[in-house]
Design a protein that fits this description.
The complex is a heterodimer.
Chain A (H helix, E strand, L loop, with lengths): L5 H9 L10 H4 L2 H4 L20 H22 L10 H31 L3 H26 L10 H4 L6 H15 L3 H30 L3 H17 L1 H13 L1 H22 L1 H7 L9 H19 L8 H7 L3 H11 L14 H10 L3 H17 L25 E3 L5 E3 L2 E5 L2 E5 L2 H9 L1 H4 L4 H6 L8 H7 L13 H5 L18
Antiparallel strand pairs in A: 1-2, 3-4
Chain B lengths: L25 H6 L21 H11 L19 H24 L8 H11 L2 H18 L3 H31 L9 H7 L4 H11 L4 H30 L3 H31 L4 H26 L3 H26 L1
Helix pairs in contact in B: 3-10, 5-6, 5-8, 5-9, 6-10, 8-9, 8-11, 9-10, 9-11, 9-12, 10-12, 11-12
The chains are: A mainly alpha, B mainly alpha.
EC number (chain B): 1.14.13.227
Keywords (chain B): Monooxygenase, Oxidoreductase
GO molecular function, one term (chain B): oxidoreductase activity, acting on paired donors, with incorporation or reduction of molecular oxygen, NAD(P)H as one donor, and incorporation of one atom of oxygen
Chain lengths: ~500, ~350
């Protein structure tokens, strides 16, 4: 082949900006979308991605990846692996398919927005590859999840989850509409490719891939590790944008990244934390959620932002303390409100599992042990009814997750504290100081009804648990339940019971 | 409450498809109702303050667009392009294209071009990368605003096809620059695009299309009018003129690019037909926008025609005929279906 090398001609592909004269620059690149802010327009001329790619390289590489990913899928579709997978692991995959597939599609929208409103031709071109990548991730996740619909109707939520008003999709739509679809392109590049993709997706993709292999789910591992190989390409939009923003407006850069990090951390505590520390069988766990966060998120993230002269976020201590509580509380809450889930949350608190939790989280027993003991004793006394929800929890007005983060008092006790603020004659509740601070700064934009607000406003009828489940789109054959109560309660059979609860009344 | 009752019901595919007799295709499975901001029963497009800037933007330019259909998810791309089929298709096409560039490069075809053809390419072909980049941006916007994931995905692939065309144009620009360093190719394009009178109506058209923020108008402006009209000049007529002037490579490359344009026309035509058959009132806004943008498209072709070196009237008539044939097809299909 005597084709010209990419380096010889690529500048012509990248150099496609011109000076508009028939319409105003501000009309074609409105501040709402382009968000240049204090950065002079000409500063974006320097925008440059480190790792260049051409269209032909893209389609050649991606064809190979697609061929191999689908070949593995086709080969495995004849195996009986799925039928022998642990229910806990299957729940991790159901949660992933339903929780992630359409977030990938929302990422398509984020990339299309940058492909239109990005402030440099090379940036817009890179975003075009980005939207293709996200179309791939959406298609793979959807198609792989679809395969199991015939075996288990909970996989129907691969497509259905985000079409409903279930509390999980409400929370995640709030986050991803905020950082992906409705942010201006500069904030979007910092929050999505930088804070979210170079950081948090590692957590879901690398960690879950390792757990999938351990659990024997080669097909799932094959899918998500192939998806992860695309991230390096389009996620470079983050650093290339940060380099320019930080030079002209470091305060904004700091705030936007901090906010993206915080929102992602809350979501992943709900999405990945329970999968890693409870659903994955204990013998297959590679690392605890906390260990994985420390290695893949904390170290890498801090290194990245410090390289650009930024500081640790203002909420750093609260976030680090939360690594010992957020996902444990969310796990307990999700297990309690299990009829609202499209997977089967396993409690995962047998004696062996508790030993593991205590080893990884020295405070676990103090904070959570007694609550689980009450639940265990009620189940062992044939009182499962008492462990089902009768009402709704407080939901945070920022992350829309339950307000359930305990913090330690000076006397050593752990309590969930009321973090609220009054605004325009209303009291808003928050799960944490971080969420409260973000809401206050962005209140005009983010102020909308939580599920509880909707309930109290009468939008959910009838005002019963059944009414709530109906509003959430939950149907009886999908509603989550513990897959095996005996598995984690049998160790405690015969002990003296504490805290037996009478259904519909006080204990 | 009582423990959840379990009554398993066998599903064959996603319940979103309803009680289907025929299994949906892979394309449908991965494309159907994927964009949550278009879901039924939403209070606002986005899960945030109903009067947030972006909720108002989508309310104004999508939910209140004059182009309205009850069932946007009823639209299908006739080519059923999904990611997997897209990269397979375009990697195969790219193999052909690389083969052509390689063979003609080795044969020194660029050196052998007539001065007249070098001038034609430098005036009409190489500067077109700015115009095509503008089309790439409008297509991205159509995808971003799309009222159904079937539309967003189709526009996403079309957005990538425009990048493909810019990429091929860039490659050829460099090749021609190396063969004809004194021709101005490779250095004069931006100047021609911004200043040369022949390019100004085209530049005006695409700049105005960038700010046509109504979803229906953006789609009509680019996919139903500017694309089909300008592609007739910049792909079909340029290809033919090149062949007549001994430039086989340009002719072949134009043929390859025509495949992308034709595919875009097929789904855009199908979408327009879907709009017309679902709601006949859509004809009025479509006709209004087609008239508005046809005048701009014709002005662009008329100004560019001399660069092709053919009689202006013929060039304009050819491009108009291509567009009108496309439109007649879709209005007629709709009329027959109603």
């Amino acid at each position: 082949m005597t084709l010209l090398k990419r380096e010889e001609w690529q500048d012509f592909v990248r150099d496609v900006d011109w000076t508009l004269s028939y319409v105003d620059e501000e009309a074609a690149f409105p501040e709402w979308f382009s968000g240049t802010g204090k950065v002079p327009r000409e500063a974006w001329l320097k925008w440059e991605e480190d790792y260049k790619v051409s269209y032909q390289e893209y389609v050649y590489t991606q064809r190979e990846k697609e061929t191999s990913t689908y070949a593995v899928k086709a080969a495995l579709s004849r195996s009986t692996t799925f039928d022998h997978l642990d229910e806990g692991w299957k729940s991790s995959t159901k949660m992933h398919f339903g929780g992630v597939a359409q977030v990938e599609y929302t990422a398509v929208l984020a990339e299309l927005k940058m492909a239109r409103f990005g402030l440099n031709g090379a940036w817009r071109n890179m975003a075009t590859f980005g939207q293709l990548d996200e179309l791939r991730h959406n298609a793979l996740t959807t198609y792989f999840g679809h395969e199991f619909v015939v075996k288990d109707p909970q996989y129907d939520w691969t497509q259905k989850a985000y079409t409903t008003n279930d509390w999980v999709p409400i929370s995640l739509r709030t986050l991803f509409d905020g950082i992906m679809t409705t942010s201006n392109v500069v904030d979007c590049a910092l929050q999505v490719p930088l804070a979210f993709e170079t950081g948090f997706t590692n957590l879901q993709f690398v960690a879950l891939s390792a757990d999938a292999l351990e659990s024997g789910d080669i097909n799932f591992a094959n899918m998500i590790s192939s998806i992860q190989t695309d991230e390096a390409r389009h996620s470079q939009q983050g650093v290339a944008t940060l380099e320019i923003l930080v030079e002209h407006d470091p305060v904004r850069a700091q705030w936007v990244i901090d906010k993206g990090f915080w929102g992602s951390a809350r979501a992943f505590a709900a999405l990945t934390g329970p999968s890693m520390d409870y659903y994955t069988p204990v013998e297959h766990r590679k690392q605890s959620y906390r260990e994985f966060m420390e290695e893949w998120i904390v170290d890498q993230f801090v290194r990245t932002i410090e390289d650009y002269g930024l500081k640790k976020p203002w909420f750093w201590d609260e976030f680090m303390r939360g690594l010992d509580t957020w996902h444990h509380s969310l796990h307990m809450g999700m297990w309690w409100w299990r009829p609202t889930l499209w997977w089967k949350p396993k409690a995962g608190v047998s004696k062996d599992e508790r030993d593991w939790l205590r080893e990884k989280y020295p405070n676990w027993e103090t904070v959570y042990g007694d609550k689980w003991d009450v639940i265990i004793d009620n189940i062992n006394n044939n009182n499962v009814e008492a462990t089902l929800p009768e009402t709704l929890p407080y939901l945070c007005s920022t992350c829309h997750l339950p307000c359930c983060n305990p913090t330690q008092s000076r006397d050593g006790s752990w309590r969930i504290r009321n973090k609220s603020l009054s605004y325009s004659g209303r009291t808003y509740h928050f799960c944490s100081n971080g969420c409260r601070q973000i809401w206050w700064k962005d209140r005009d934009n983010v102020n909308h009804q939580t599920l509880v607000d909707r309930f109290l406003a009468g939008a959910i009828q009838p005002m019963t648990v059944e009414g709530i489940l109906g509003y959430m789109g939950m149907t009886p054959e999908v509603m989550g339940d513990d897959p095996d109560y005996t598995a984690w309660t049998k160790d405690y059979v015969g002990r003296e019971a504490t805290g037996l609860v009478q259904v519909g009344g006080a204990s | 409450m009582s423990a959840p009752a379990r009554k398993p019901r066998k599903l064959r595919t996603f319940s979103a498809f309803g009680d289907v007799r025929k299994m949906p295709s892979e394309y449908e499975i991965v494309t159907h109702a994927q964009n949550w901001n278009t879901r039924a029963g939403r209070l606002s497009a986005f899960e945030q303050n109903p009067s947030s800037p972006m909720n108002l933007w989508f309310l104004t330019y999508r939910e209140h667009s004059p182009l309205q259909v009850d069932d946007w998810d009823g639209f299908r791309d006739p080519d059923q392009i999904s990611y997997r089929s897209y990269v397979h298709l375009q990697a195969d096409e790219q193999t052909k294209l690389d083969g052509m560039l390689d063979s003609y490069g080795e044969a020194g075809a660029a050196d052998a071009l007539t001065p007249e053809q070098v001038t034609r390419l430098g005036a009409l072909f190489t500067p077109s990368r700015y115009l095509v980049h503008g089309m790439q941006l409008v297509e991205a916007y159509i995808g971003y605003m799309g009222p159904s994931s079937y539309i967003t995905s189709a526009a996403g692939y079309a957005n990538a096809d425009f990048l493909r065309r810019v990429t091929m144009t860039a490659y050829r620009t460099r090749e021609l620059q190396l063969a004809h360093p004194d021709s101005g190719i490779g250095t004069q394009e931006r100047g021609l695009w911004e200043q040369h009178p022949a390019w100004q109506p085209a530049r005006e058209a695409i700049e105005r299309a960038l700010v046509a923020y109504d979803f229906g108008e953006a789609f009509t402006a680019l996919n139903l009018v500017l694309g089909p009209t300008l592609d007739d000049l910049l792909i079909r007529q340029l290809g033919e003129a090149s062949k007549a002037n001994g430039d086989e490579l340009t002719w072949l490359l134009c043929d390859v690019l025509a495949e992308d344009s034709n595919r875009r026309n097929r789904w855009s035509g199908a979408l327009a037909t879907h709009c017309l058959t679902s709601r006949p009132e859509n004809e009025a806004p479509l006709r209004k926008w087609i008239d508005r943008w046809s005048a701009r498209a014709d002005a662009a072709v008329e100004a560019l025609a001399p660069l092709l070196g053919a009689p202006t009237a013929d060039v304009v008539a050819g491009a108009q005929a291509a567009r009108e044939k496309f439109h007649a097809g879709l209005f007629q299909t709709a009329a027959e279906a109603v």
